[in-house]
Amino acid sequence: MALLDVCGISDWVKEDGFNAERASVDKVNHFNFAAQTPELAVPVGVDPAEFLRPLVDSEEGVDGVKINLEHGTTTLAFKFQHGVMVAVDSRASAGSYVSTQMFKKVIEINPFLLGTMSGSAADCVYWERVLAKECRIYKLRNKERISVSAASKLLANMVVNYRGMGLSMGTMICGWDKKGPGLYYVDDNGLRLCGNMFSTGSGNTYAYGVMDSGYRYDLSVPEAYDLAQRAIFHATHRDAYSGGTVNMYHMRETGWIKVSQEDVGDLYHRFFNEKK
Amino acid sequence: IYDRAITVFSPDGHLFQVEYAQEAVKKGSTAVGIRGKDIVVLGVEKKSVAKLQEERTVRKICTLDDHVCMAFAGLTADARIVINRARVECQSHRLTVEDPVTVEYITRHIATLKQRYTQSNGRRPFGISALIVGFDCDGTPRLYQTDPSGTYHAWKANAIGRSAKTVREFLEKNYTDEAIATDNESIKLAIKALLEVVQSGGKNIELAVIRRNQPLKLLESKELETLVTEIEKEDEAEKKKQKKST
Q1: pLDDT score of A251
Q2: How far is CA B165 from CA A149, A153, B45, B129, B193, in A?
Q3: According to its UniProt record, which protein family does this protein belong to (chain A) (predicted)?
Q4: Measured between CB atoms, does A160 come within 8 Å of chain B?
Q5: Are B176 and B154 in contact (CB under 8 A)?
Q6: pLDDT at residue A4 above 70?
Q7: Which of the two ends of chain B, N or C, has the fewest CB atoms closer than 10 A to its terminal CB?
């Protein structure tokens, strides 16, 4: 079109947009969320992945600026004979500044589904709330609760549309559905793994150490509570970006319960007094 | 650019395009569906083919997935489009939800698709009604019917197409717990229902069944012939009994 040429943007804009666009009647729904909604639309002519790559991937960054996308937190979840244990810390940090010690890193999607958050707080909170909305709509349309595998798949499909654009999210979707206890790890690359034990965040190595040394499938409920709490505590003890309180949930056949919320300072005294 | 609606309301609240589509369905060959206890049966009237035409290219009973299939009445070309979209949706659902569709879900998808075409620019409604049968994951047998307006309902037994009314009346009289007590009895009920309206017997009937956890099975003409003969014998025995009592 002549006007587009005069403005100099005909390179970016596809001219046959009117006819080429499929009518909404014919669009096949592959559960592709949000990428087409206006509030997260990308301006014409900008490719976010290309824009971000030199800032994140290269050694020296751009003009001396390098963005480190790290998941500063510790979260863990494991399956055992009595269901799924979920434990998280509660510190939110911006670099070396601690923004809050009371951040809720577990989102209660429905009485049978929990999501943990690690990475960018904004990304996690936003996308897991969108997931909660989709789970609710699923239940209304299909008259039964969404399965854990479907919920985690929806989340993975949502974020894969934004691959390379700078999302930072490492989450575990835990629940109990018709197939029994479910635990999936989903991250900002669209990776989705089913497993029996996961830990995410900057403190995950410390948590894995404690969990791996004490884990058995046939743990009793008090033993599992103790193991989960200990693992997060030890991570907060050594990792600067984890701390605050240990929030613990237990996913059972009848739904989840919040087991405890204990300050890591109190836990320190409890655990170190045991040694005496 | 299509910006004009074709399906619009009449002053007395009718969507005439939809009603005309339902007329097109009534011209199509009959299809019947029966929900048994452990089996679901679909039967269709086979239209006679031209001498040079290969018989088996027109299939009115189609699988949508391993555990769901459908029969239709109406415009074959429209049906092909709907069936393709339904098959894609079955796989899309498996991919995103990691579970097979329930029969209700895929019926709802087809019905929603049909409704969208009654409310879109430049498009006319699909001229087909469909009978969708199958088993859900939990083993429950299901039968649903959709029509060009986009509504859908669950049925124990139903018929669509030419002479659907006659067949449905037959089913209302004869669909009893005894009649569907076994798989064989359910199949025979479907055949009997079609024989009411089909000329010259078993040759013009095509029958398919799905049993729980098994794929769709089309009955061979030999099996059909055997069953039709059985039915004819039973009918004669009934008539003799009635004669004796009067």
Answers
A1: 97
A2: 45, 45, 15, 14, 11
A3: Belongs to the peptidase T1B family.
A4: no
A5: no
A6: no
A7: C
Residue A161 contacts B where some CB pair is shorter than 8 Å: no
The count of C-alpha atoms lying within 13 angstroms of the C-alpha of A121, restricted to the half-sphere facing its C-beta, is 16
Show residues of chain A in contact with B98, CB under 8 Å: 147, 149-150, 153
Burial group, residue B48, by CB count within 10 angstroms (0-12, 13-18, 19+) = exposed
For all residues of chain A together, what is the average pLDDT?
A: 86
ipTM summary value: 0.82
For B220, the domain range is: 16-238
User: Which pLDDT tens digit goes with each residue over B149-187?
Assistant: 999 999 999 999 999 999 999 999 999 999 999 999 999
Q: Which residues does chain A have within 8 Å of residue B2's beta carbon, measured at their own beta carbons?
A: 23
**CATH architecture of the domain formed by A79-275:** 4-Layer Sandwich (3.60)
Maximum distance among all Cα pairs of chain A, rounded to whole angstroms: 84
Best A30, A135, A143, A161 residue to mutate vs chain B (most B CBs within 10 Å): A30
8-state DSSP, B9: B
Give catalytic residue positions of A: 73
Is the torsion defined by CA of A213, A215, A220, A221 positive or negative? positive
Phi, psi for residue B4 in degrees, rounded to 5: -110, 135
Per-domain residue ranges for chain A? 79-275
Chain A contact set for B1 (CB, 8 A) = 18-19
pTM score of the predicted model: 0.84
Which residue matches tokens 């494991």?
A78
Chain B interface residues (partner A, CB cutoff 8 A): 1-2, 85, 88-89, 92, 95-99, 102, 105, 108, 116-117, 120-121, 123
Tally of domains within chain B: 1
Among B60, B59, B49, CA closest to B161: B60
* Among candidates B2, B89, B96 on the partner chain, residue whose Cβ is nearest the Cβ of A153: B96
Asked whether residue B104 is domain-assigned, the answer is yes
**Is the pLDDT reported for residue B213 higher than 80?**
yes
Residue B8 lies in a domain: no
Which residues fall within 8 angstroms of residue A268, CB to CB, at 6 or more apart?
A233, A237
Neighbours of A42 (CB within 10 A): 13
Residues of B in contact with A154 (CB under 8 A): 96
Question: Between A108 and A28, whose confidence is greater?
Answer: A108
Does residue B80 form part of some domain?
Answer: yes
Asked if residue B6 is part of any domain, the answer here is: no
